[in-house]
Amino acid sequence: MKKNLLLTSLLLLAIKAFAQTPDSTFKISGNISKLDKGMLYISYQGINKYIVDSSKIINGNFEFSGKIAQPEIAYLKLVNTQMLDNNTPYVYLEPKLMQVQLSNNPFAVVTVKGSKTHDELMEWKTANNSLKQKFSGALSRLDTETDTAKHKLLQDSMVLYYDQKFAVEYDFIKSHPQSYFSPYLLVLHYRNYTVAQLNEIYNKFGSQLQTSVNGKLLLKDINSMSADSRGTITANITGKDYVNNEDFDLSKLKGKYVIIDFWGSWCVPCIKLIPAIAAEHEKYKDKNIAFVSVAYDQDGNQNKCRELVKQLRMSWVNLWQTQGKHTDPGITNTFDVGVFPTIILIDPQGKILERGDAEYGFLKCKAVLEKVFGNSL
After folding, report:
1. pLDDT-based confidence at 377, cuts 50/70/90?
2. Residues 6+ apart with CB under 8 A from 289
3. What is the pTM of this model?
4. pLDDT band, very low/low/confident/very high, at 226 (cuts 50, 70, 90)
5. According to a count of CB atoms within 10 Å of the terminal CB, is the N or C end of the chain lower?
6. What is the reported pLDDT for 195?
7. At which of 90, 114, 138 does a domain end?
8. One domain, residues 157 and 42
């Protein structure tokens, strides 16, 4: 009798435990306007593998289902390619039934119902778009303004825009400490915050978010910043200039300012930024500063990069790291570079003065150089 009672109790506990385990299955029931038939593709991180799935569009309707370990961002495409761009629509999946409304022209997500995380993503996007609209005039004129004084004002506006953008983002994350979208955002932009700010937020996530995929990545990023963030002495890097075959040793540049640009031939924003870096090089070529570019690319693209170095007048040190080969002491590993372009400015004592990605990072470094050399030009 006691044995039967024990078995019954264990069975009830097992049923209860099973009932409390969240279902990992998501389902999407959707419709796309003005497109009666075709194929729709979805890609997302499934359980232990990345998933690319498809659904027939019948009378404008489509369906998807799958399993996810946690809320995951998914990308939608009408053409089955592996390439994503800034216009690729996305949906934040949750393990439940969701209704998704798309438009065909332009291809975009109109509404998503049933995903709290997607609602939080859209809340952030609305705030971000509102700020972008506020600075739209400066953002649109920056590349075309030819007047030097006006162009400088536009660059200052650009830096102010990004400063406010990350302040808005930081406030959003602080007010959403239980959202899976928060660690996702921080993993993308962690370099724009201090270690203290990141630790403050991370400690409020709770164990569920801290042990999520992005929570673990964020902790790794926070730990990596102690050795290569602003105010720290940089590690030495050595290599060989793949254009002129000369040896390079960063330690031999002690006593000089050094600006390092990480780029690749595959990176459109990198190529777009290089002429501005070249202009800074021309401006300060007789000053106490050295320029270094690190090409992170496939070995088969070395000749392509050499040609770009020539075309873009990159008449400074050019180092190479094979894309995907994170060997120690790989230069991108040394500086924990995961976003391209990344710009780093080092002072004559070897201390990192500034660093950042894309145009924002470059403009921050440029502003420091103007303070250092401005009066002597």
Report:
1. very low
2. 256, 257, 258, 259, 369, 373
3. 0.77
4. low
5. N
6. 86
7. 114
8. no
